[in-house]
TrEMBL record:
EC top class named in words: isomerase
Entry-linked InterPro entries: YjeF_N_dom, YjeF_N_dom_sf, YJEFN_prot_NAXE-like
Comp. bias regions, Polar residues: 298-307
EC number: 5.1.99.6
HAMAP family the UniProt entry points to: NADHX_epimerase
Catalyzed chemical reaction(s): (6R)-NADHX = (6S)-NADHX; (6R)-NADPHX = (6S)-NADPHX
Record-given protein name: NAD(P)H-hydrate epimerase
Residue ranges constituting the YjeF N-terminal domain according to the UniProt record: 33-231
GO cellular component, one term: mitochondrion
Cofactor note: Binds 1 potassium ion per subunit.
Amino acid sequence: MKKKAWIMASFTLFRGLSALVSGRTNVPRMKYLSQSEAIAVDEELFKYFSVDSLMELAGLSVAAAIRDAYPPKGQRVLICAGPGNNGGDGLVAARHLKFFGYEPMVLYPKQSEKLLFRQLVSQMELMRIQVIDAIPMTEQYDLILDCVFGFSFSGGKPRAPFDQILNEMTNSKKPIISVDIPSGWHVEQGPPDTDAIQPSILISLTAPKHCAIYFDGPHYLGLNVPFKIQQKFGFRQPRFQQAEQFLRLDTLSPDDEILFHHKTEESLGGFGTSDDDDDDVTTIEVEVASPKLKEQTKPPSDSTTYF
């Protein structure tokens, strides 16, 4: 815990010095959700949207973010899918990655018997996406998509076979893209003190969770949320540009204020927009990496509960 406290202090100091050196004294930051907040947001979404519709949007966001970070050149992608809805996001992403020009394979050792998940497997089989249950050697793939555990994971040692899967990913030298939570990390306390997955890219859904504080690489945000729900839970999503399904949080700057949702005649009532007065909404800031950090963490161009 002392190590994590030191990381938090260093993170806060770095953020302040970065803003001071660059002359930015009001650096926007996005709110980080606790586990209970993430669950509450999830439950609120389920009041208005079906699981399959949310999963489809989440999986599309994930695939689109991967396409941005690693443009398709026929890369072999291993999707490691867990038994819950985070794994379901991976099953959806596999289908979209196939459309985008990748060669996905899905490691899905504990398949759900729920109709939705059986349909997702059938859809992948229709598209000739191989689904396996034996853990392969990760080095034969170009990218690894981590969709094992979502924000319902509260730490501790995972059970078999997921302990072996996490160990294989931890020791892999291939780029790992984690969805919402790097598997094995505590949703609030971050990585365990022992060896853990260190993803190359993190794709947060709806809003970053507390553990994202411990991640300093390219950070994407996916899954647009209606403004009313953002307002209820006290967070604000930056505006997704045009038809994009994601945005890069770590490349935003104070000059990107236009990215935040403001009340306009053109945007009333839609996803991420307000049909009420914005005066009572607290402005949430978005973490901004320093130019040096952004340069260091830029991915190579070639190369639940819910979520």
